Amino acid sequence: MALESNVKLDYLYKEYARLNDKTEEYVKSIFEDFKLFGAITVVIPILKPIFDLIVPTNLKIDSGFVWLMGFISLRIVIYIIGFLILARTGYLLHCVHNLQAYEIKIKKELNESADSDIFNFNLGKEEARFATIYRLPFRAILILLILLADVVPFFILYFYISQYALIYLLLSLIGTTVFLQISRKVYQQYFRGKFI
Questions:
Q1: How far apart are CA 181 and CA 185, in angstroms?
Q2: Under a CB-based contact definition with an 8 Å cutoff, are residues 30 and 92 in contact?
Q3: Rounded CA gap, 172 and 175, in Å?
Q4: From CA 90, how far away is CA 106, in angstroms rounded?
Q5: Distance between CA atoms of 134 and 127, rounded to whole angstroms?
Q6: 153 CB neighbour count, 10 Å cutoff
């Protein structure tokens, strides 16, 4: 009977380790996606020379409108990247949930108590302390992104025509609200209580 239990434990551990490695690779790929946001920040300084080339060639185009379209285009790219990261994060949270089931089973096979720290790495992610630690940098990134993607373009557009600035602000508020609501629903599937 003990031999059968050891074989079962060995199998559970090997599968747990395999899934954990896959999950870690997935986390690395999500962090690679954050580099895309960095690429967007490089694009912003080169917008002015590009717009200066476009506007003088066609005097019928309002330069404020060109800026508005440029910022809306960048915002759409930011939303696409954000939703891509959110979709990947949702899948990652599903993987972590699956690993938690293995941790529970391995703990049971080892006769460890439920509150033991043995095989508790993924189970501990539902604890309030982990959620609080994770929540702080997540919120900081969101605030920084909102400031860079919403507030700075608003003031640049306001310099040209205030109506363009208000249009951009309205579209940004709608898009950001939708993104935050979807983020909240994704994270609430995993973290209990209010996350964002």
A1: 6
A2: yes
A3: 5
A4: 25
A5: 11
A6: 24
15, amino acid identity: E
Amino acid identity, position 101: A
∠ CA 133-144-42, nearest 5°, is 125
Contacts of 92 (CB under 8 A, 6+ apart): 23, 26, 27, 30
130: closest CA among 41, 193, 51, 54? 193
Total residues belonging to the chain: 196
| pTM, full prediction | 0.72
Pairwise CA distance, residues 126 & 196, whole Å: 15
3-state secondary structure of 152: helix
Only one residue has tokens 């950001």, namely 176
Give residue-wise pLDDT tens across range 5-62.
778 888 888 888 888 888 888 888 877 776 776 666 666 666 666 666 666 665 676 7
